[in-house]
Amino acid sequence: MKELVKRLTEAYGPSGFEAQVRAIIAAEVKGLADEVRTDGIGNLFVLKKGRDSSHRALVAAHMDEIGVMVTHIDKDGFARFTRIGGVRPLGLPGARVVFANGLVGSIGLEKLEDRTKVPDLDKMFIDVGAKDKDTCPVKVGDAATFWQPFAAQHGRWIAKAFDDRIGCAVLIETLRALPKPAYDTYFVFTAQEEVGVRGATVAAFGVEPDYAIAVDVTPTGDTPESHPIAAGIGKGPAIKVMDRGMIVHQGLKDWMIRTAEEAGIRYQLEVLEFGSTDAMAMQTTREGVPAGVLSIPTRHVHSPSEMVDEGDVQDSVKLLAALLSRPVSLE
Amino acid sequence: MTLLKELSEARGVSGREDEIRSILFRHIREHIDEHRVDALGNLIAVRKARVPAGAPVPRKVMLAAHMDEVGLMITEITKSGLLRFQPTGGIDPRLLLAKKVLIGDNKVPGVIGVKPIHKLKAEELEQVPKYEQLTIDIGVTTQSAAEALTHVGDYATFDTAYEELGPFAKGKAFDDRAGCAVLVELLKHDYPFDLHAVFTVQEEVGLRGARVAAYSVEPDCAIALEGTIADDLPKKKDVSPTSRLGGGPVLTVMDRTFIAHAGMLRHTIAVAEKHGIPYQFKQPGIGGTDAGAIHLTREGIPSLTIAVPCRYIHSPVALLYIKDFEHTITLVRETLRTLTLDIIRPEA
Amino acid sequence: MDCKEFLQRLSEAAGPSGYERAIRELVAEEFRRYAHDVQMHKMGSVIALRRGDGEEPRRRILLAGHMDEVALMVSKMDEGFLHVAEVGGLDPRILPGQEVIVHGRRELPGIIGARPPHVVTPEERNKVIPLHELLVDVALPPEEVSQWVRVGDLVTFRRPFIPLQKDWVAGKSFDDRVGVVVVGECLSNLAERWKHSWDVYGVATCQEEVTFLGAITTTYGIRPDIAIAIDVTFGSMGDSADGENFQMGGGPAIGYGPNVHPKIHQMLVETAKKLEIPYQIEPLPRGSGTDAWPMQVSREGIPTGVIGVPLRYMHTPVETVCVTDIERAGRLLAAFIAGLDASTMEKLTPRLDVEA
């Protein structure tokens, strides 16, 4: 699994430009599924038939990651840029970004008038080493992501884009581990989550599932002077109760807790005061879909170096497999 | 450009687009096969396929241009007959001082008053006015006199004459009457598929008309036609002008509401280059259009936005370059004529 | 229906967004008296259907009042004290010194602690205490707290109903149990004295305060021809409306703006005039912030209306309302519904004036 996670996290895939990630996943799931297809926005649907085909489950993990997009090339060949998703300016200067074709840029900073304030993106630029505007190899509209290698040490993994390639990895491993799900189960690798849960919006409309679970990362409160958050890494997968975009369906959440307890899988409960996941969009589809979230606790979310615990990831696969193996109860 | 003049001078703030809808219908009725008006007030017109297709083509293509403009709504009539108001859609309050407006269906004229410079303290000159501090004066001195002419809930619009200044056109509400005018012209041509022209309502308050229209039309793909931001005045810093007048039709790669369909974008660029039509990219990350709502409808609709660059949108007076307007019509028309199913098919 | 008594029952029960079960049961019990059918929707709303006497297929009108309330949720345990997150929008300044109920494995009374002035520095006194620094104290030893409470448990205000003078009352969660009472009052009026040809769906929606989940999903399912949201609006602190605030006891506020179909607005105003029900006009230049906002853009689009009941101190445990305004809103809606007939939808279709 580690090798798969390395490949997934090092792949290029900002929102709207997920093709490279989609290709890796499509190759991985070949032979594991009854049907594989894509749609117009770029979602990848992997259907695994279940014991009972009169019901449908949907599990989603998003392929896209946050990134930047070029807005302007100045006369000297420096590229101004905007954010794709929730990129925070703190930590950007000095970071390296990579474009779809492998071209690497360094993020530079203007001379600051006030060095006590965090400058916004309009004070920064991408330097690809161009000589001038005309010969600059990038153009307006080109997207880039952080350029960071994967690292593993004593059971902890560090990489960019664990949000949400780790969710993609959990889905792929669950597909491998799961003999036959209870229901026809759509493993959906969604596009454009970071810019407004867009892939999940249209995917859920099409699949019309009986219930849905998003597998995504959640920030933790186990680092120095952090916001009060109960979740931490190394304490098992988190079952979400609430975030900024949704209140998880009470019956579905209780069923997830019961399933974890009955299967003897450790878990934590998650209450998050900011951010949301694909489940938010799936919940409001059509007449409504009871939707829950299985979260992988992740430190330093949306930074170029996120961190997860290997045991949490393994347990997330176990929990997702346990959930999909049994009929849902929404009481 | 007489149509753009008529549309620009007509009034239609979000939620009250009736006048624009009637004008548009009058101009398109001869060119369409079907039409309907939905519950929100969208005008949905269909021009059926009239030419054979060379290759497999989409069944239905939706083009959207929004009829509504930003404006003001009267929220209170004071004891002294002055009208308080709030914006509908985004209007910078710094633009409001000493402007003329027309209020309600009866077009009652009014002016947005401001304290004379003689009486202003130095620090007041530095202050940005707040909506709560501004009033419209319609020339009465009592609440009852004002209530005889206007009502709480009336919309007010800027009163700006359309005029052509050499190769430029000046007027209000080019966002998105320019798009509406482009769409009317496009309805005069033949395509190998059913063209669903939707003149949408309530774009400025959250892309609301386009959302329900796309749900009912269920097109295979869609293009939003816009009058978009040109911030191309000289600047100290070498940064994006968002778009510029004279640069040709503006293509969106990504804005706050959507990321353009890659296949449709590539196709449009190829068409522009083949026909020698100038084009430019809008500064990514800025603004939003009806495409933002359309592309998320049902199971997703491949979408694109093509716009006429306009200076000073969301203000009493905007400016566009007529050649850009004409190029936009040509670019969209040629893009549609050569649009095949392959272009919008999902990638494997 | 006794509006005041029903409001008291609803107000004193707990039903934060997503956890409306207790309210759901009270609403179903009351609505059943005036409806032909009451269903629980899978996402948590209650749908009461009162059939009309018109020929099938009948037109449908949906009335929505939301039953969820703003609340807090345990986000972390700290030595027996509870950190909380908000469910819906709360002003953190109202929290210190409030009594609450923690809905754990059993209900525990709690206090949101406030440190006495003696130990607070002058600088601290000038600063608002942010939510993440507030703690709920349930007066139990830490081991016992973790036995009863865990992360994700709800915390609601503990506030018995407060009768003020005459028909004025105060309490918690009037936003929008008041709307639910209006829907009930309308159904009760229809049952007792109005013939109506349309089917009426009285819906107590869930999760308005966070995502409009109930309104989005029930509107999609019911596919109404007309939808009206009934919510509270800002009560004026003076004796008259002032544009953004509405007179207490001045009657329901009838919304107008992009979120409201102009003909529905007009029909509501005409109905109020005919019945001599006092009313106010609420200009809504942008959205309405009510269930009507998502209802309007459901499917192919739905003509919507907005009715507001003036209320002071919104999102606090001392929300104040004038019960007569609730009764008036219910009566207004019943008369409006009685006036709906076979030609109504035609009137709602915008005209294309080609002679212009």
Verbal overview:
- The complex is a heterotrimer of chains A (331), B (348) and C (356).
- With 331 residues, chain A is α+β, with helices and mostly antiparallel strands.
- Chain A is 24% helix and 29% strand.
- In chain A, the strands form 3 sheets. In chain A, strands 1, 2, 3, 12, 13, 14, 15, 16 and 17 form a 9-stranded mixed beta sheet that branches. In chain A, strands 5-4-9-6-7-8 form a 6-stranded antiparallel beta sheet, with no helix packed on it.
- Chain A is globular, with a radius of gyration of 20 Å.
- The model of chain A has no long low-confidence stretch (mean pLDDT 97).
- Chain B has helices spanning 2-9, 18-28, 143-149, 174-186, 208-217, 262-275, 291-294, 322-337, 341-344, and strands at residues 34-37, 43-47, 60-66, 71-77, 83-88, 100-103, 108-112, 136-137, 155-158, 163-165, 168-171, 194-200, 221-230, 250-251, 280-281, 303-311, 318-321.
- The longest helix of chain B has 16 residues, at 322-337.
- Chain C has 356 residues and is an alpha+beta fold.
- Chain C is built from 10 helices and 17 strands.
- Chain C has helices spanning 3-12, 21-31, 122-125, 142-148, 174-193, 213-222, 262-275, 292-296, 323-338, 344-348, and strands spanning 37-40, 46-50, 60-66, 71-78, 81-87, 99-103, 107-112, 135-137, 154-157, 162-163, 168-171, 199-205, 226-234, 253-256, 280-283, 304-312, 319-322.
- Chains in contact: A-B, A-C, B-C.
- The A-B interface holds A 15-16, 19, 22, 26, 37-42, 69-72, 74-76, 80, 82-84, 122, 140-141, 143, 192, 195-196, 198, 201-203, 205-206 and B 238-240, 253-254, 257-259, 261-262, 281, 283-286, 295-302, 344, 346-348.
